[in-house]
Amino acid sequence: MPPSESAARSDQPSIPAAPVRCPCGSGNSYDDCCRRLHRGDARAATAEQLMRSRYSAFAVGDAGYLLRTWHPGTRPDTIELDRTVRWMRLDIDRTERGTLFDTEGVVEFTAHSRQDGRRAQQHEVSRFVKVSGAWLYLDAAD
After folding, report:
1. Least enclosed by CB within 10 Å: which of 59, 64, 72, 112?
2. 29 vs 111: CA distance, rounded Å
3. Domain 30-140 CATH (choose: 3.10.20.90, 3.10.450.50, 3.80.30.20, 3.40.50.880)
4. What does the radius of gyration of the chain's CA atoms come to, in whole angstroms?
5. Residue 140: φ, ψ to 5°
6. pLDDT digits over 17-66, tens only?
7. Which family does it belong to (predicted)?
8. pLDDT tens digits for 63-87?
């Protein structure tokens, strides 16, 4: 997901207190799910898992993780997150490849949010590549 146009600087993630459910929608606690990836204790095994962890990074405000998991060929120098956006739900619409054995993958998703009392949706078809065993976000497909 690209950063918001009207963004406020975000240096520190707002880590939820355990045992809060993970924002990615897995049903697991944040500690047992995406936090392990955000902290660098684990890597995403699939493109979908990376997509979910990146959505969670938006939800908790972890700009550093978003940059670390963005392909260097398409990654911006910095990213600013809009703290007024509250990420509500992630729907994975479809996946293409992106398994343990693939080096490329596509994840189509819809991210639901609220800002200033208004509901919004962001739909994207994201492309991912595996580099040196690590999945990275490449870009949004046209």
Report:
1. 72
2. 19
3. 3.10.450.50
4. 14
5. -90, 130
6. 545 899 999 999 999 999 999 999 999 999 999 999 999 999 999 999 99
7. Belongs to the UPF0225 family.
8. 999 999 999 999 999 999 999 999 9
